[in-house]
Design brief:
By secondary structure, this protein is α+β, with helices and mostly antiparallel strands. The protein contains 5 helices and 5 strands. The chain has a 5-stranded mixed sheet. The two termini are 19 Å apart.
């Protein structure tokens, strides 16, 4: 997850906040993934636009290493594309933290990637998380806490 609250991001947030009657000033702004490792990031945004992707996952260490407050139910998130432009405003509907090797098929289906199988989910997420861990100089483990977030789309840029 990377990104900044640029003037363009702040303007999108303020327009949507006003239009939707959101009464908080707090929101997150980032990509779903680090685009250096997830070169397919914008394809994920296409799945969101098509209504196929309604969840995402991160290893918990991602929040810690990037000094990002872990999102909770009800949090707002301006999701950015690989050029760090706003694409969606989403609201977190549920959060479940569990070891990577205990993520369930139902979550993989909500992520909506590939063939929606747990095997596909585990393969692509393991590859991504291994790259992150290598970048940080930490060992990957199948028991690493994984933050599984469900969301609803509130607005599209």
């Amino acid at each position: 997850m990377i990104g900044k609250k640029t003037a363009e991001v702040r303007a999108f947030w303020e327009r949507q906040r006003t239009a939707l009657g959101i009464d908080t000033e707090l929101y997150h702004a980032s990509t779903f993934a680090d685009v250096r490792f997830a070169t397919y990031h914008d394809e994920l945004l296409g799945l969101v636009a098509a209504g196929k992707k309604r969840a995402t996952a991160h290893i918990q260490l991602d929040f810690e290493r990037n000094n990002i407050r872990q999102r909770g139910v009800g949090d707002y998130w301006v999701v950015l594309n690989s050029a760090f432009e706003p694409r969606f405003l989403i609201r977190i509907t549920d959060v479940d933290v569990r070891p990577f090797n205990q993520v369930e098929q139902s979550f993989a289906e909500r992520e909506g990637e590939g063939d929606k199988s747990l095997a596909y989910w585990a393969r692509v997420h393991r590859e991504y998380f291994e790259q992150q861990c290598a970048e940080w100089g930490v060992l990957w483990s199948e028991s690493r806490p994984t933050v599984c977030e469900g969301f609803e789309v509130l607005a599209t840029a």
